[in-house]
Design goal:
The protein is an alpha+beta fold. Helices cover 36% and strands 22% of the residues. The protein is built from 13 helices and 18 strands.
Length: 511
């Protein structure tokens, strides 16, 4: 899935930051790597694997992944992966099958990471401590060693792997009429990239060579794309929010940071996103049907709905006083239609006001609050076990349910893991943001005194933040911030940068 670096910067100071680690004439990349390593430590995350974990890795790195005895042999299907150009930790494959009824079966295969990463072993202990891979602009700190995440447990091109498969029958209106979860042996027929697949699907680029090399794959991908669009339309009719943020990827030249390049969603990214959302919904419902608890991903009703109402009013739209996802979605659709250029800025404001997601445990007899942004009550994380610990937990629950074994986790243990995953995910975001701030300070170090147009992305007692429209960088407003609120457009002047601390300070000025 997409993991581009987003310049959403907040003003954080690391009191334990060791300035002595800064080396004169050090390259930008090396400096950012050092900052990242220290930030991991300061946030209670492990930047390196323990000797015990590495010893365990040495023992298993020659083992082949073998499916369970009840696994189906689906190696013949036209499985393919679609991810970023440089992705090697491939967690999922997809394929479509036409049904005699006219419906379409979508199959999502998820890498069987649990087959090699055993519960409570040293590698699992490291993953449980960090709970996620941390993607900084200069270095990735993987949740699992690359020998696993990019090789033995990755659904690599032309390799046979065991997987947990979610099979969903999609009706012609985009709804899921039936779903099942089972074990299978799969084979990736083609490793594809988002951008080239999207260009081909939208007739703005040629067919990627890997698609043409596999007979029938082109037709299958066209079918997947059509079904994904039906599913997306159905979700939004039910109140899922249309949001589109601007993302940026730092660009290095010989270890020196040169620029950030904007990235946007495309047809292929949306297709995979739609399938993963559906698979996560089906997974949560499957566990409930088997009487198993589940680790749910929820986004509660927005606490700052009043400010969302105010923003809609500024666009001459009246939203209900009480949170209503369908009404908000209609506002977003119209805003995107009337002003597509500035819609990403509006989306960012809504995302900030909705608040972050969290993990919680749902027992079979209870009901969670669901995911407000997706308009789904049943939602878990299950499709990225190589890089998210909640997905690995869910995979263990699924495998136990499939083969009729007892639940591998007690309810209290799951509740503790849910809290741990929420806390560490927040810590990981702050590490990524800290390094992005330092990278942004590098890019702006020679532009003191320049004025920029931006949008307010945070306004609270701890500070006010602005994101520039160009370049895509965020910093703190330290002057003239009174009465500013999220979503407002302002002009600011750059007054200070500090690469070591990641400080970027602006003052509000007239346009």
């Amino acid at each position: 899935m997409q993991r581009a670096c987003v310049f959403k910067l907040q003003y954080l100071y690391y009191p334990n930051y060791d300035r002595s680690m800064i080396v004169k004439n050090e390259s930008d990349r090396a400096l950012l790597q050092r900052i990242a390593h220290q930030a991991m430590i300061d946030r209670g995350l492990l930047p390196d694997f323990s000797p015990q974990a590495l010893a365990e890795l040495n023992e298993i790195q020659q083992l082949a992944t073998k499916p369970e005895g009840s696994a189906r042999d689906l190696r013949h299907l036209l499985w393919c992966s679609i991810d970023n150009d440089d992705s090697r930790d491939l967690d999922q494959l997809t394929v479509a099958e036409r049904m005699p009824s006219g419906d379409v079966k979508i199959l999502v295969a998820v890498a069987d990471v649990d087959a090699l990463v055993k519960k409570d072993a040293p590698l699992d202990a490291h993953a449980r401590q960090n709970t996620t891979s941390v993607y900084t602009v200069a270095k990735t700190f993987p949740m699992l060693p690359e020998k696993l995440s990019t090789d033995l447990t990755s659904l690599k091109d032309a390799e046979e792997r065991s997987a947990v498969v979610v099979g969903m029958i999609i009706a012609q209106d985009g709804s899921i009429s039936k779903a099942d979860v089972f074990l299978a042996l799969v084979r990736n027929q083609a490793k594809l990239a988002y951008d080239s697949v999207a260009a081909w699907l939208t007739n703005t680029g040629p067919m990627p060579a890997r698609i043409g090399a596999v007979p029938g794959l082109a037709e299958n991908l066209r079918l997947q794309d059509r079904v994904a669009q039906q599913m997306r339309m159905r979700r939004h009719e039910c109140g899922a929010l249309t949001l589109e943020t601007i993302e940026a990827r730092p660009v290095f030249d010989d270890s020196q940071l040169k620029e950030v390049r904007a990235e946007t969603k495309n047809r292929a990214k949306e297709m995979i996103e739609d399938f993963m959302i559906a698979a996560n919904v089906a997974t949560a419902r499957f566990l409930a049907s088997q009487g198993f608890p589940s680790l749910r991903r929820i986004v509660r009703i927005p606490k700052r709905w009043d400010r969302i109402v105010d923003i809609a009013s500024e666009h001459r739209v009246a939203l209900p006083k009480e949170p209503d996802s369908k009404a908000l979605e209609q506002f977003l659709i119209e805003a995107r239609r009337s002003d597509p250029l500035h819609f990403p800025d509006l989306s960012l404001s809504i995302i900030k006001l909705m608040g972050p997601g969290e993990y919680t445990v749902e027992l079979p007899e209870n009901h969670s609050s669901g995911h407000f942004g997706l308009a789904e009550r049943d939602y878990t994380h299950s499709t990225a076990p190589n890089r998210r610990y909640p997905d690995l937990i869910t995979q263990r629950l699924l495998k136990a349910a499939i083969v009729g074994q007892p639940c591998p986790y007690g309810n209290e243990t799951l509740a503790g893991l849910a809290a741990q995953c929420t806390q560490k995910e927040d810590a990981a975001r702050k590490v990524e943001r800290q390094v992005r701030k330092s990278a942004a300070a590098m890019l702006l170090r020679s532009r003191l005194g320049e004025r920029f147009e931006g949008i307010i992305t945070g306004a609270a007692s701890k500070g006010t933040w602005v994101r520039l429209l160009q370049p895509l960088i965020e910093g703190r407003v330290i002057g003239g911030f009174e009465r500013l609120d999220v979503g407002q457009r302002v002009w600011v002047e750059l007054v200070h940068t500090d690469i070591e601390r990641g400080f970027i300070d602006f003052k509000k000025v007239s346009g």
